[in-house]
Design the sequence.
């Protein structure tokens, strides 16, 4: 039968227990008040579940690529200290057909119905339904399954928090994949935020920071940054290979700013 | 053969007998005359079946998401006290292929042909045919099966009431899935209705209610509410986590009103 | 082989011998001269087959939903008193795949080639090919099969009358599913026709009839009815649950008229 | 292997040897010089094959539905008196999947490569590739197979004439299904042609013919007929059930003329 | 495994060794300098492979239907006298599914990697990928396979010449099926070219040729011919069945000219 | 299970260890400063991986067909001297279905997770997902798999460099297949660059080079070359078959320039 068959579906790359941890490996930098607000919002939803006020709550973290959605969702989930926390990523389902994906997802939800407090993180949910804007293409079977599961009240006394992330919020709306609550995760926006990250990285002196910020403003002709935290951190790593670390960093970030404003 | 094969299709999440009951768990709040009218209408259709005047009647409850369609359909079905009442939900068919879905549905109808008075609730019937507006996509096999079953006169002396719910009425019309009768289920519309619910929740004093209503009107600049009962109840639960319960409630509902008028 | 495999296809809901009879259960009300003309036309086609003048004749009964097409086709077929008469309905093929549907249909035709005079009723033929206007979708395999069968001269001395019904005549034309003859089945159109049905139902006095007709004209502002016989009969059944039977009937019919003129 | 598997494909309705004969059962009425020209043209192509001047020739007979294409193609094929003549009709392949259809067709061609002179009639070739204008839909696998076979030079000394019929010539052009030669088969066009058929049917006196023609001209307001021979013959059969045979015939033909000019 | 499975795929019509020869059966008529130029071009590409200067070269012969592409590609391949020469035609793959077609093609290329000098002719390559302009439809799996194979450098010392033919050059460009070199094959264009072919056929005297050319110019009102060599040769064969061979030839060619200029 | 099943997928053409080497067989000609810059950029990315600063880096080499992308990616990968380097080409997956392709790719990545420093070259990545602009068509399953794998952080201490090549950069953007870094590979652009290659080929004297350049400028009326290195090298090979090597080379290159500016 169906549930028995579940045993036979193994993700191609395994599902390690460390996945959640790896998503927040480098720690969260509180580079802007948004970060604090997002984490506080998350704590509130966690409490709504822990107290059993609401048996089922689905929350969507949305924002541009590399803005830190996965790291923040993982942080919220880990901070809940719920007995059952599970991260599901698209790569976990690579090589599965639609039926196997649905079984993998439903096993996660079924498992979550057994613990007194549960959190499931559905990472990059638009890729989970194989969304591609060309066409557009998507798996309507997996989509239907996720809709069904996210609408299915858990058994009494097993409240469930579903945290999903996406960089394609309007796509989810078109697919009528609805959430009870939403949290926006913005890019690094201001020079101040960028400076905060540079300092915390320990790779730049205060003078370096001033110089880099100045060069970026000059190159881009604007004080607006709008680059994801991921891009900023990768920029630091690239710059560290260079003799002129500060100049290279300014160069890389300026390019990223230009790319984003062109897109 | 076909009917024999039916035994092998088990829904991934089981079909508990308590499903119908859980849909009306918190009781029905009679926050507006519409609620009474809907229930009375439902009673009339139930009688038409009970007296055998009409052997087969299909009724569609339609309205915005979270307006209470499923709760009201469940209430009408349970109040009929028919010997056979069955709720079918999309989640019951997650992980089934088209053939299995059709078998699951047809088993429900076949079972319903055995009892002297029968009611079947098809919840979120647009999801039952896997409707997605992008494409659009839907399962034409399941659609054809539902059309066939809803048009199939039951055996003599086994009258059947089919209650379906949808938040996509025009989609059903486009799909030519026709019903003999229709019932509209509206959102919470007036301040008076909202106040009714707040009071009945036991979470707010009369002064709280006045203050919340006032703040909502000020924030939204309108006396019009247009939020589903589900959103209102969830708003109360969220507000209860906050020190300023009334202020938080006004905030949450104002946001919901804004979201709905933007959509 | 193919024909042997036929034994394995069983309709999900069985094919009872009483199906034809049930389609005309309540008798035919001769509420307008059209009804007589349709039945006479049908008799002529039956004769053309009985005398063997024409070996194969396909006739399409088309008209709005609920106008009485199936009842009239069944009546014509039963009145022929041919040794082989068979009704095929979409619901008989629910849960079959395309190949099974084709086998089910071809078995019907093959059986029909064995009797000295044969009639096959294909009910709601647009649903038989799984037509859905969204897309549009349809089964081109079943369509091709029906075309082939309806064009296939039966063996010598086994003339065959095919009676098909549809509420989607233009769809059939687009699908190039052609018939040798056509019969239009209109809705109840005039007040006189409506009065005829009310009287024959035995549920209304002459005064009731006058009052209902009057109220309908007043509500709709028109003398035009344009409601299917099915809608009229269901309206009577609904009205019979009400204390003010006549008033309720006028109400229900007025709504139906409004719905139809809006569509 | 492939060729071995051929044995397992049996058409649902059998392929009787009498098929060709039945297509010309009633004889060919030479109601217009076109009929003679078509048959002479056919004889010329037959000779080109018989003398071995051309090893492979594909000819398309095209014209409106019911204009006599199949009867004329069958006549030409039978008159060739070739040792191998085969008629392939869409109904012969009802219930086959694409692979089976291709095997059925290729078996026909393979068989045709064994005889010193061969003719294959592909009737309603647009239905053979399951063409439906809605979509449009068609079987590209069967289409590719037919293209391949019609382009494949037979073995030395086994010349092959392929006669195909269609009422969708432009469709075949769009599908790039090309023929080496084409023959147009027109409808009954003039009053003189219609009179010819009426007289030859033996069902009308000269006066009857004059009266019918006159009434048709009066009803339609035109001397143009443009009805297929099939429609004319069916009209005679219908008329024969009537007391006023001539009047009824004029009526039926006038309707057919109106239908055709409306389409 | 994969390569082992290759043994099981047999073309429905066999692949005779004589195929290449049959494509040039009647000999090549050098009716225009283009023919000489095409053959010389082919010899140059053959040399580039024979000397090992280039390990892999793909050449496309393109032109209107019946212009002689296959005959010329076969001539070039045969004249190379390479130890391995293979012709692949769409008809060789009739009845194969996509996987079987790919295996059939890849076996041809794998075989070609074993000989010191190799030539593969892919005839009507647009049909090999099942191209149909309606849709459009094509096999993207076979297309991808051909792209992969045509880009795959053979092992050292096994240079390979791929000659492909098509009458749909722009289609190949849209499908991004690219070739390293291209050869255009034109229709018979001038009266002089037509006269050359007529004379070489031995079926016409010089006076006949003059008369035919004159009549064609008069009928078509132009000196431009633009008919494929295939059409010209078929015209001669048809004309030979007629008493007035010259008049009939002029008629047939004039029709072909008209058809081509209409298309 | 899944990973066990991997053993059963063997590429149709084998995966030789020499593939990477063959891609740079003729050596890299440093005909322009771009070549040096590209190789230096590549070295920097290699260092970022070797030092473990970045655990996972995906780089896209994009440019026109035949511009040298594969050769340069192979050069960068080989120069890294990482213990694990793997080239994956579309032809390696010819004849595999989607599941097999995904397994082939995932096996490559899984293997790459075992070595202390890893590089994977995904050649012509748009063909890996079977992209065809007509439709457009592509394999969304393979695309999803590649997205998942390119986003999957390798285990600790197993940093991975992914080098991909494409001539369809905007397609990848539309498919939302994103890379952390990008390198542009241009065509041969200037007369100076062309002269550089001609000289290095050893096939032309300085006078030859001058003459060829002059003739090309005269023929094309422009000093702009814009032909891929592959086209230039093939042009030299073709020219070497000709008596007038220089004149022929100028001719071939002029044609290539014309083709490119027409496209
Ligand atoms: N606030 C933060 N402070 C420090 N590091 C962060 C922060 N947010 C994210 N990161 C790091 O930035 C990287 C990218 O973040 P993450 O993967 O969460 O972004 P994302 O928005 O989920 O990206 P994607 O759209 O690709 O899914 C990770 O390495 C993560 O650890
Ligand atoms: N009149 C009511 N009084 C009190 N509670 C109600 C009422 N109607 C609905 N509810 C509650 O509100 C919640 C949502 O209602 P329900 O699921 O019936 O809405 P719905 O319209 O079916 O939503 P959806 O569109 O998502 O299917 C449920 O918890 C239900 O118990
Ligand atoms: N002339 C009539 N007199 C009395 N009852 C009729 C008449 N015609 C139809 N009915 C009844 O009306 C009902 C609906 O008719 P029927 O099913 O034949 O309509 P239909 O046009 O086939 O509908 P649909 O479009 O849904 O297939 C049936 O119960 C039938 O018995
Ligand atoms: N010239 C003719 N003289 C007498 N009878 C004819 C003639 N041509 C056709 N018929 C008869 O008319 C009927 C229909 O002709 P036929 O089936 O050949 O037409 P068709 O063009 O093939 O029709 P369709 O388009 O439906 O395939 C047949 O019964 C045939 O015997
Ligand atoms: N130059 C020529 N001289 C004599 N006969 C020729 C010549 N070229 C082609 N033919 C003959 O003309 C016929 C058609 O030519 P062929 O099949 O090569 O044309 P094609 O362009 O490949 O046609 P298609 O577009 O249908 O594939 C063949 O019988 C071939 O032998
Ligand atoms: N800089 C160079 N110096 C010398 N030879 C080169 C150079 N770059 C490429 N080549 C050679 O040119 C030929 C084509 O180059 P390559 O296959 O790398 O181009 P590509 O851009 O990958 O082409 P495609 O778009 O077809 O994949 C190869 O034989 C390669 O060895
Ligand atoms: Mg993420
Ligand atoms: Mg509901
Ligand atoms: Mg009906
Ligand atoms: Mg025909
Ligand atoms: Mg050819
Ligand atoms: Mg390349």
Sequence:
């Amino acid at each position: 039968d169906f549930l028995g068959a579940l045993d036979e579906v193994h993700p191609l790359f395994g599902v390690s227990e460390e996945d959640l941890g790896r998503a927040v490996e480098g720690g969260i930098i509180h580079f802007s008040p948004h970060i604090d607000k997002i984490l506080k919002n998350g704590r509130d939803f966690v409490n709504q579940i822990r107290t059993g006020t609401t048996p089922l709550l689905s929350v969507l973290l949305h924002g541009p690529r590399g803005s830190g959605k996965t790291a923040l969702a993982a942080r919220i989930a880990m901070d809940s200290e719920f007995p059952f926390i599970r991260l599901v990523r698209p790569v976990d389902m690579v090589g599965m057909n639609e039926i196997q994906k649905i079984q993998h997802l439903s096993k996660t939800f079924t498992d979550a119905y057994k613990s007194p407090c549960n959190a499931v993180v559905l990472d990059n949910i638009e890729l989970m339904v194989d969304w591609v804007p060309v066409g557009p293409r998507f798996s309507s079977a997996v989509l239907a399954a996720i809709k069904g599961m996210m609408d299915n009240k858990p058994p009494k006394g097993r409240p469930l928090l579903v945290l999903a992330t996406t960089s394609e919020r309007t796509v989810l709306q078109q697919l009528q994949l609805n959430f009870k609550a939403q949290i926006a995760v913005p890019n690094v926006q201001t020079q101040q935020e960028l400076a905060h990250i540079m300092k915390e990285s320990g790779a730049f002196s205060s003078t370096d920071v001033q110089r880099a910020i100045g060069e970026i403003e000059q190159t881009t002709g604007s004080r607006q940054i709008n680059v994801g935290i991921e891009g900023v951190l990768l920029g630091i790593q690239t710059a560290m290979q260079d003799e002129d670390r500060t100049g290279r960093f300014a160069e890389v970030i300026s390019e990223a700013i230009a790319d984003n404003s062109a897109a």
Summary: The two ends of chain D are 49 Å apart (CA to CA). The domain at 2-184 of chain D is CATH 3.40.50.300 (Rossmann fold). Residues B 24-26, 28-29, 35, 65-71, 124, 165, 167, 229-230, 233 surround adenosine-5'-triphosphate (ligand 2) (CB under 6 Å). The CA atoms of residues 6 and 103 of chain D lie 6 Å apart.
